[in-house]
Specification:
The protein is an alpha/beta fold. The chain has 2 domains: 1-32 and 364-391, no CATH class; 34-354, Glycosidases (TIM Barrel). It is 43% helix and 13% strand. Helix 1 (2-31) packs across helix 13 (364-390), helix 5 (100-110) crosses helix 7 and helix 7 (135-154) packs parallel to helix 8 (188-201). The structure holds 2-acetamido-2-deoxy-beta-D-glucopyranose (NAG) (3 copies). One 2-acetamido-2-deoxy-beta-D-glucopyranose binds next to loops.
Length: 391
């Protein structure tokens, strides 16, 4: 009985701990309760296990994740989670994906086994293909997308899983003022049929947009507040009289204008990547934790408010922040390795507004202890109830 009592005491301690943890996470959930997505890039050798990442994501109430591949470990870790997944086929797959039987096999191996447990809603076929100098890759893009879509149709998955690709903002030759947005002349031959395909299957046009790049190239011309969503005068598009208080919205509307110029106003634009680095090389002006916190914090607030852009006020912006973690193996300037909201150890890189900080990532070991204790509590209460019923 002594033993049972002490177990009960520790049990009630854990119950109150549990309630405490739950009420904290409830608070966080309320604060972070918005429909933003996040890019879960894995070009690193030090990232936490997908099961740990699943705990972190849950505490953030992030509802959408974008992967650059179809990592089965991640898809399994998020089974039964309610998180919606965009998965990716890298550029190296495009040639094979123009072959119907290879496309079908890929879906059978990478989508179907996880599909019943994990919400896979979209496949991006290729990433920033028009930013490569590879004409063959550009020629393969649309056939690969069509073939993957056809394979989804024949497997009966096309209603749940859509097909698209993600573009660099550099596919535009003109983006200012937003109403005169236009695609690069040399890409029109590829983009016109691509847009027709998007309209036909009703899939979104994805763009990776980084006001940071524009700012860092012109820090003396572009007001920092305008790119960070801070109070500022903004700009007015002389053709439409629409007022822009931030660069990202201007970029999104420039993409809508470019698409419209090619005869389509039936395609939704979504932001597959945007973000701000917390660190960079000395010449990468603006890459600081303070700016990154303002950019991402202010952006999340706007997502929470379900804002649309000036040209599409009724279409809430749909955004995947880049990225969940700093990725130490990314090539290029230092900024490339510093886009994460988190360090690989689960600590936030900076505190983003909303409630001031992102929660620490609970370690998997701790949550195992917690679940063992919950289990013990249940067993103990059961024994206790048995004891009582005997009396
Ligand atoms: C979590 O976020 C979703 C949007 O993704 C929102 O609908 C839901 O209300 C949020 N949950 C809470 C408890 O805030
Ligand atoms: C493309 O298909 C060939 C032949 O089936 C295979 O050997 C190759 O590994 C595939 N390429 C990729 C990137 O999967
Ligand atoms: C494409 O070619 C241009 C000019 O040759 C070069 O400056 C650029 O870095 C290349 N881009 C890629 C992604 O290889």
């Amino acid at each position: 009985m002594m033993m049972i009592r002490s177990v009960i005491r520790s049990c009630s301690f854990f119950v109150s701990m549990l309630l405490f943890v739950l009420s904290i996470s409830d608070l966080l959930v309320k604060i972070h309760g918005h429909g933003f997505g996040i890019n879960y890039g894995q070009i690193a050798n030090n990232l936490p296990l997908p099961s740990q990442v699943a705990v972190l994501i849950k505490s953030l109430n992030v509802s959408k994740i974008k992967l650059y591949d179809a990592d089965p470990n991640v898809l399994v870790a998020f089974s039964e989670s309610n998180v919606e997944f965009v998965i990716g086929l890298g550029n190296e797959y495009l040639e094979n994906m123009t072959n119907p039987s290879k496309a079908q096999t890929w879906i059978q191996q990478h989508v179907q086994p996880y599909f019943s447990q994990t919400k896979i809603t979209c496949i991006t076929v290729g990433n920033e293909v028009f930013n490569s100098n590879d004409t063959q890759l550009m020629l393969n893009l649309l056939p690969a997308m069509q073939t993957v879509h056809d394979a989804l149709v024949s497997l009966g998955l096309d209603q749940q899983v859509t097909v698209t690709t993600a573009h660099s903002f550099n596919t535009l030759s003109n983006s200012y003022p937003p109403s005169s947005g236009a695609f690069r002349e040399d890409l029109v031959q590829y983009i016109q049929p691509l847009l027709d395909f998007h309209a036909q299957i009703n899939s979104p046009f994805l763009i990776n947009a980084y006001p940071f790049f524009t700012y860092k190239d012109n820090p003396n011309i572009i007001p920092l507040n305008y790119v960070l969503f801070q109070p500022n005068q903004g700009t007015v598009d002389p053709n439409t009289n629409l007022h822009y208080d931030n660069m990202l919205y201007a970029q999104i509307d420039a993409v809508y204008a470019a698409i419209k110029q090619m005869g389509h106003d039936d395609i939704q634009v979504r932001i597959s990547e945007t973000g701000w680095p917390s660190n960079g090389d000395p010449e990468e002006v603006g890459a600081t934790p303070q700016n990154a916190a303002l950019y991402n914090g202010n952006l999340l607030k706007r997502i929470e408010q379900k804002q649309g852009t000036p040209a599409k006020p009724l279409v809430p912006i749909d955004i995947y922040v880049f990225a969940l973690f700093n990725e130490d193996l990314k090539p290029g300037p230092a900024s490339e390795r510093n886009y994460g909201l988190y360090y690989p150890n689960g600590n936030p890189v900076y505190n983003i507004e909303l409630k001031g900080y992102l929660p620490q990532m609970p370690m998997a070991a701790k949550s195992n202890i917690l679940s063992v204790n919950i289990f013990l509590c249940i067993v103990t209460s059961f024994i206790f109830a048995l004891e009582l019923s005997r009396w």
